[in-house]
Amino acid sequence: MQTTITHLTQTASTSDYLRSVPTPPPGTMVVAQADFQTAGRGQGSNTWESEPGKNLLFSILLAAPTVPPTKQFVLSMAGALALKAALDNYTDGIMLKWPNDIYWHDKKISGTLIETSVRGKTIERCIYGIGLNVNQQTFHSDAPNPVSLLNITGRETPLQDLFGLILRHFESYCRRVEEGSFDSVVNEYNAVLYRRNEMHEYQDTSTAELFNASVKHVGTDGLLHLVDDKGEERVYSLKEIKFIQS
Fold it and tell me: Is residue 41 classed as helix, strand or coil in its secondary structure?
């Protein structure tokens, strides 16, 4: 897979930068990395806190992945698995929190925003916008549970070493998706899901109902399947369910 990398000292958002890039040939990865983002985003209206030069802030443009739009969440799974595979070289305890956050135990070390462009029955491009906490010691935002690799290991990690490892794993997982190995990627993602088969509290955002349930699995459609304490299966899409953190 052909990969090109652009390094930016500062930008509003690496995903915004890649949005302005003409769509490259199919099977190509285009990467933009920044030392600092002035408008880095989290989910919804949230921002991503990062000290300049301390963390990894980057976006990856995947051109024309051979995934039907109905199964596009497999791309999200592949990206999350690539990040986990890289972080597994530095620490134990890395899990994937649906839909695409990376957790170390009950703390968030990385978040990804994914944008896909679909035309007809084809995905034209997919952009992963990724923030990964690496060498930041202290967090000042109101984010409830941030953690960095430095907090976990007690030592700084060379950013470019970790970045190179992430890109190699991204290429590997994307190649598997391109080759149609959807089931293996889905099974691997589900095997390392945060809170899988553990009873925890959740809130249905449409009704405000609080209930206890365990994570069962996530399908290729991206829907989260829970089993509540009454043995009933509940299925949710993004924004329909809130994880209650103790």
Answer: strand
In whole angstroms, give the CA distance from residue 81 to residue 166.
Answer: 10
Query: CB neighbours of 34 closer than 8 A, spacing ≥ 6?
Result: 7, 8, 9, 10, 11, 14, 17, 57, 58
Q: What is the pTM of this model?
A: 0.94
Q: For residue 64, what pLDDT is reported? A: 78
Average pLDDT of span 143-172: 96
List the one residue out of 151, 149, 133 whose CA is nearest residue 56.
133
**φ, ψ for residue 236 (rounded to 5)?**
-135, 150
Residue 93 has pLDDT above 90, yes or no: yes
List the one residue out of 237, 194, 199, 204 whose CA is nearest residue 219.
237
| Per-residue tokens: 67 | 């995934």
Amino acid code (one letter) for 199: M
The pLDDT, as a whole number, for residue 41 is 59
Q: Which helix (H) or strand (E) holds 104?
A: strand 101-104
